[in-house]
Design goal:
Distance between the termini: 37 Å
Oligomer: single chain
Structural class: mainly beta
Largest sheet: 7 strands, mixed
Helix content: under 10%
Radius of gyration: 13 Å
């Protein structure tokens, strides 16, 4: 399975970005779809996830600003990020079942 993440870039604080992750097979075959991020010098952390067991989950730091969604017709997941803050800067990775990972897309939020 291959995951291709896209949509990162440089944005000013308060701005928005939409990340996308395309899977090489049907996303119905996965139990967990998610986005993680890794800031410089920090460990990778969960940003948002969708699972059959837990529904939709968000990190406290992004709840109310980020929205995860899935598009089964295109085998894609998205992360809509609004009201971005400099602390949202990092490399964002999509994952499916924590087994398959995208290559990462860099998000930089300037103050």
């Amino acid at each position: 399975v291959q995951l291709q993440a896209s949509g990162g870039g440089l944005v000013q604080a308060g701005g928005s970005l939409r990340l996308s992750c395309a899977a090489s097979r049907s996303i119905f075959s996965f139990d967990v779809l998610g986005w993680y991020r890794q800031a410089p010098g920090k460990e990778r952390e969960l940003v948002a996830g969708i699972s059959l067991a837990a529904g939709t989950t968000y990190a406290d730091s992004v709840r109310g600003r980020f929205t995860i969604s899935s598009d089964s017709t295109r085998n894609m997941i998205h992360l809509q990020m609004n009201s971005l803050k400099p602390e949202d800067t990092g490399v964002y990775y999509c994952t499916m079942d924590y087994r398959y990972w995208g290559q990462g897309t860099l998000v930089t939020v300037s103050s």
